[in-house]
Amino acid sequence: MKCFFLLALLGFLIAAPPSFGQHSRTARKYLKQGTDLFSKGDVAGAINEYNRALALDSKMPDAYLNRGKARQAFGDLDGAIEDYETAIELLPALANNNQEMSQAYLNRGYRRSNQLDVDGALSDYDRAIRLNPNDAEAYFKRGRTYLIDGDIQFAIADFNKSISLDDRNPLVYAERGFARQFQGLNNEAQQDFERGLQLNNNLRLMLDLHLLDLQMQIREMKRRQMAAHRNIARFTWYNLPDA
Question: CA quadruple 167, 206, 179, 141: dihedral positive or negative?
Fold first, then answer.
């Protein structure tokens, strides 16, 4: 009877599925293969290996982090940010001054800003700044979004912060000058435009085109805001109670 029990136990151990430790080791192997492929420029292959790793172990922060990097390189910003956020949930220390994560939010914020999704853009820029609080580009782009939305004071505050971190970007001076014009500060605005031209080797055409694009976005944003206000007023009028 004792011999039968030992044989049965041995058979169970042989037939048992791989342990979690074995799964973890295999997941690590896939993770390394993905890293090797990514370093060779095979982004799609790397993503596939990271998927295999996470299928075996869904609690690997470095696998989410690396897949996020690969997705970002592949142009899938939403997927990259989803992976970064999961990685941070599993290991918060990954968020400390992580420039790749910050850049993903910056890129998506810029895309959203160009689509005049102001709330989405500002949310992404806020996140980028929390990840990398000394990034001049993040303050510049958030300032531009505030300017498009009509928040001149917030825009200028961000432009000032951007310049304090990097005073060699001509576009920041051009946009701050544009914002100062809204405030009626024409002398200060002119100084900003001149400084922008000096930094851009007097290539006025580039700055003019940049400001023209900004003006078009501001006009379109105002048109949408006015349309929204008209719709709200119309809805309120239609729903007034009878006297």
Answer: negative
Instruction: List average pLDDT for each run of 10 residues in the chain, which is 243 residues long.
Output: 46 47 83 95 96 94 94 92 93 86 93 93 95 94 95 96 95 94 92 89 72 84 77 54 56
CATH of 25-96 given 3.40.50.300, 1.10.760.10, 1.25.40.10, 3.30.497.10: 1.25.40.10
Q: Rounded CA gap, 184 and 238, in Å?
A: 40
User: Is 0.85 topped by the overall pTM?
Assistant: no
Q: Does domain 97-230 have CATH number 1.25.40.10?
A: yes
User: Cα 85 from chain centroid?
Assistant: 11
**Domains of the chain by residue range:** 25-96, 97-230
